[in-house]
Amino acid sequence: MQLTKYEEDMLNGEYGEGKAECMEILLSLGKIYDAEKMIPITSAQVSGVSYKTIGDAGLEFVVDLGQKADVELETMLNPAGVDIENWKELGFSEEFTRKQIDIIEGYESIGVMSTCTCTPYLIGNTPLLHEHVAWSESSAVCYVNSVIGARSNREGGPSALLAAIVGRTPFYGNHILENRKADMIFDVDYNFENEAEIGALGYYVGQIVNNKNPYFKLNSNPGRNNLKTLGAALASSGAVSIYHVEDVTPEADFAQNHESYDETEVVNVDENIIKDTLSSLSTTDSIPDLVCLGCPHASITEIQKVAQLVEGKKLQKDLWICTSKAIKAISKQCGYLDIIEAAGGKIVSDTCMVVAPVEELDYEVIGVNSAKAANYVPNMCKLDVVYDTVENLIDLIT
To answer: Quick one: which of 123, 162, 157 has its CA closest to 137?
Structure first.
C-alpha cells in the first residue's frame, strides 16, 4: 500500500504507540482487500458497545487502547446494553449495568461521544455527499451509503475505532465509486402503506442479494423513516451495505447508468411476496408482553406518531420506544414524552431490544414493527416476536 509521509510517521511510532498499533492493524486489513492506499475520513461510528455482545474481553480492549491513544475526529457510539439513567426502573441488573458503564467510560476516556445510538445521522453526525467515513452498525452503514450518499464500508467495531484514532481507513469496497453500482434490480409492484410492509420487502430482498447492491423500482417515494427501515432489514437478513431507489436516493442515476445495467438480473416483487414475508416474521400469534419500537432508533416523527396513537389511552402491557438521549429530550420538549408516559409507556434511551438483556426480564413475547428486530430477537434473546405495524401493536396492548 502507498502511504503518505504522515501515515508512514504514524506507522513508525512518531505519533505514539497507540496510533502505530492502529495503523499496523488497518494496513493488514487493507492488504486483505487489496487496498492501494489509505484515505482520510470525516467521522466514525463504533459498534461493539453492549456488554451483552462484547463481554469482559471487549471491555479490556477498550481500556487497554484508551491508555495509548485518543480519537481525532467526530466519533459516536452504537447502542449500549441498558438505559444508563433508567436501568433500575426497567428491571436491568446492577451487575450488568456497572459493567456497561465501565465500557462507556472507557470509550469516553479516548474522546468517543457516548451518544449510544444506531442513528447518528439523526443527532448531528450527518456526512456530506461523497464524504468518506468509517461506520460500523449495519443499518447506519446502509443509511449513510444509500440515503445520504457518503461512503463507508461495513466496518467492525474495532476497525471503526482504529480508523477514528488515525483518521484514516483503507481504500476499498464502498469507498471506490465503481463498487457502488447496482448488482440486482427489484421491480416492486406494490403500494406500500406502512413500515411493516417496507421492512418485509427489505427482509425478503436481503435474503436474495446477500452482499450485492440492490436497485429498487418502487411505485412511490417511501420517505426517510421507511428508507431507514428498509436499509435495516436489508442489512440484517443479508449483508447489504448500499442500495438504490429509482428517483429517490442520491446515487440512483449513477447506479443505473453503467454498461452492464441492461444485463443486470431483474426480480419482480408482488403482493404475494410481501404478504408471505410479513407472516413469516412472526414466531407466535400470542399477545405481546412488551411492545418495543425503535429498531433502528426512533426519529422524532416516529415518536410523535406513537404519542398520537396512545393519547388518552391506558396500556395494558409494557411499551418501550427506543431512541437516543437527544431525540428523547426533543420528545420531552414537544410534549410527546408526557403523553406516552401518561398512557403507561416509556421512551428508552441508550439501548434497544436487540443488544439489551431483555431475556433476563419477565417477558416471553415481544411485539416489534422492525424486520431487523424480528430477525434478531428470537436468536439473540430467545424470545418470540409478533411482527406488525405500530398501529396494530398498540391496539393489541390497549
So the answer is: 157
